[in-house]
């Protein structure tokens, strides 16, 4: 009986030791799964971002860049409205919509909206839509996002002055933004 008890104790001790050693070896061989992390496009600081424009790049600081053009006149590029975020491509992830304005300081500006998505963790430009071409007119709000659609307000005019505004909606078709419905014409609402 004593011999049996001793035998059981030795076997249990051996099994316990083998189990602990096996677990320790198993922990060393199989690393813990990495925590899944997803950084959305909202983490990109588009007010302190480098934008390509007319074959050059410009680094904005606080949403603004100023420099001299080829003639020595002061020129600026700025974020014209706070970036907007929403799923415009239907992939379940947000895109960023950035409105940029550029032109001579105190003079007529060209305004465009850019839509960015993330690819490989970096912003990728999906589309650029013109909003105003060399006009002395600013709006308080150029874009809205609504149920996967991008709504933009364009300014039309000549000689630096606004003639009328147009509100258009666009939807992503898998390759580009296409117009949805007819544009709505409205009077100028320059600030």
How does this structure look, described?
The chain has one helix at residues 2-29, and strands at 50-53, 56-59, 64-68, 74-86, 95-104, 109-119, 122-135, 143-146, 149-158, 161-172, 177-186. The chain has one domain (41-186). The protein has 191 residues and is mostly beta strands. It has a five-stranded antiparallel beta sheet, with no helix packed on it. It has a four-stranded antiparallel beta sheet with strand order 8-9-10-11, with no helix packed on it. It has a two-stranded antiparallel ribbon with strand order 1-2. A hairpin with a 4-residue loop joins β10 and β11 (177-186).
Mean pLDDT: 85
The total of beta strands comes to: 11
* Helix proportion range: 10-25%
Integer tally of domains: 1
What structural class do the secondary elements suggest?
A: mainly beta
Short description:
The chain has one helix spanning 2-29; strands spanning 50-53, 56-59, 64-68, 74-86, 95-104, 109-119, 122-135, 143-146, 149-158, 161-172, 177-186.
How are the SSEs placed, and which strands pair?
Elements: H1 2-29, E1 50-53, E2 56-59, E3 64-68, E4 74-86, E5 95-104, E6 109-119, E7 122-135, E8 143-146, E9 149-158, E10 161-172, E11 177-186
Antiparallel strand pairs: 1-2, 3-4, 4-5, 5-6, 6-7, 8-9, 9-10, 10-11
Features:
4-stranded antiparallel beta sheet; 5-stranded antiparallel beta sheet; single chain; mainly beta; 1 helix; 51% strand; 191 residues
């Amino acid at each position: 009986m004593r011999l049996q008890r001793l035998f059981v104790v030795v076997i249990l001790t051996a099994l316990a030791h083998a189990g602990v050693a096996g677990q320790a070896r198993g922990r060393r061989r199989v690393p813990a799964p990495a925590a899944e992390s997803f950084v959305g496009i909202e983490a990109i600081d588009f007010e302190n971002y480098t934008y390509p424009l007319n074959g050059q790049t410009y680094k904005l600081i606080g949403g603004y860049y100023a420099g001299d053009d080829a003639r020595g006149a002061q020129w600026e590029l700025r974020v014209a409205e706070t970036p907007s975020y929403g799923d415009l491509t239907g992939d379940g992830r947000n895109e960023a919509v950035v409105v940029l304005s550029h032109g001579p300081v105190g003079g007529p500006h060209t305004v465009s909206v850019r839509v960015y998505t993330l690819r490989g963790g970096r912003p990728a430009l999906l589309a650029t839509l013109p909003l105003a071409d060399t006009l002395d007119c600013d709006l308080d709000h150029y874009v809205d996002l609504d149920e996967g659609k991008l709504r933009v307000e364009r300014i039309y005019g000549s000689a630096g002055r606004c003639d009328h505004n147009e509100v258009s909606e666009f939807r992503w078709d898998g390759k580009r933004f296409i117009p949805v419905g007819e544009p709505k014409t409205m009077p100028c609402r320059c600030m």
